[in-house]
Each structure stands twice: as structure tokens, then as C-alpha cells.
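Data availability (excerpt). The following record was deposited with the supplementary files.
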Amino acid sequence: MNIYDRIKKDHDDAREVMDKIKETTARAEKTRLELFTKFKLDMWAHHKVEEAVFYSFLRDDTKMSKDSYEALNEHHVANGFLEELDTFPVTSEEWGVKFGALSELIEHHMDEEEKDFFPKARKLLSKEQADLMGKRFDARKKVVLAAIMPIDEDELKAA
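Predicted structure:
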């Protein structure tokens, strides 16, 4: 899977989870918390790996540097939102409003990346480079997710 398809897959997964979260109410605390935890960890891993594998190469190209830095800034803002949401009870009205703002930001970022950034990057990257980046993205994301996943309480109790 090339880098564009790999990133698009993450985007589609994120859209699906965001929709599920938006369908929940404050009364669905457990479901909302489980969905948000999955979403948060996946977004953190996605952003870090995308920056290391994809943007680090493209931001040095003068044709792509402005777009790359804009995308990096959007990652930074989204990560700040994720951290802030982590401090509020998922049952609060404020949490729902903030999640709505975060999902709008992420939707905008993903749409812009897919419609504007990818076509420009395709002009700079060979098929082989895009394929290699896709493989590296996949491998590194698994490692990052494993590293940031909270330790299972049952595992600790059994140790």
C-alpha cells in the first residue's frame, strides 16, 4: 500500500470513529470514553508517523514547504485539543462542544491533505518512494501505537 492509500485508510478510520463519537450522548459515558481513547491514541500515532515518514521528506522541497508546515501546525493544534479533551469528563457539555470543534479541524485537515497535498506530493515522489513510505508508515505506526498504549491493569495485577 503506498503512502497515499495508507494515510487515506487512517483518515477513513478516523472519520468513522468521529461519527460514532458524535452519535453518542453524555449518558453513554463508557462507549464515548472507549471510542475517544482509541481515537486519541490513533491520532497521536498517525500524526507522529506521518510527520516522520511523509512530511519530513516533503517539507524540505520548496514547492511543498508551506503546505507541509501548515499541516504540521494543524497536527499540533489537533494534538492540543486531544490533550485538553482528556482533562474533561466525557459526560460534560463542554467535552461535546470541544470534540465537535476538534472533529471539524481534523475533517478540514484530512480533506485538504487528500485534495490538495496528495496531488502535489505525487508530482515529487516516485511510485517506488510512495510505496516505501507506505510500508514504513505501517511498520512505524504499529510500534508507536504499542509504545503509547496504556498498560493493561489485568497484566499488572497478574505480574
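Summary of structural features: The chain has a mean pLDDT of 93.
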